[in-house]
Design goal:
The chain contains seven helices and no strands.
């Protein structure tokens, strides 16, 4: 049986923060009337948030990051930030789950603010990494983002672009 992929905890934290930012932007655009024909339901928020938590293994990746990459003197603060992050993302889901009607402007604003809180908490955790780890994960993040952009634009060609790989030894 082949080995499973190696966890890249800092990259997961960055990617989940990116998703939170994207969700916040969509909700604010709906709230501001910039996306008139877009409807988001409470169930979509609940379901999507739970899938994000599970598929990202966010709690496990934050623990891995704290245990192996955060300097010992910052681990207590990192643990607090990780707990705050999990509480914030769970609050998105629980807040949406309480809505038993179509989302209204106050709901969109509250959920957008919660997504912002998730992003801020995750970024605060990420900022506790040593500079060389932040540089490494930022490089991974840029590579993944460029790869996804090519796929989204329909211009990705594996024969020309190759397979997305990271040189973990550098």
């Amino acid at each position: 049986m082949p080995e499973g992929p190696e966890e890249r905890s800092g990259l997961v934290v960055l990617r989940v923060a990116e998703v939170a930012q994207f969700q916040e932007k969509i909700l604010r655009a709906i709230l501001n009337g910039d996306l008139e024909d877009v409807v988001v339901t409470p169930q979509q928020i609940v379901f999507g948030t739970q899938i994000l938590i599970r598929n990202s293994n966010l709690a496990g990746n934050m623990k891995l990051m704290i245990d192996t990459e955060i300097e010992r003197g910052n681990r207590r603060e990192a643990s607090i930030q990780a707990a705050n992050s999990m509480n914030a993302i769970q609050k998105v889901s629980s807040t949406a789950a309480k809505v038993e009607r179509a989302l209204g402007p106050a709901d969109y604003e509250e959920l957008a603010n919660l997504y912002r809180l998730v992003r801020v908490e995750l970024n605060s955790l990420y900022d506790l990494l040593p500079p060389e780890k932040k540089d490494l994960y930022n490089g991974y993040f840029v590579s993944v983002t460029e790869y996804e952009k090519k796929i989204a634009e329909g211009v990705y060609n594996p024969d020309l672009d190759g397979v997305l790989k990271f040189d973990y030894d550098k």
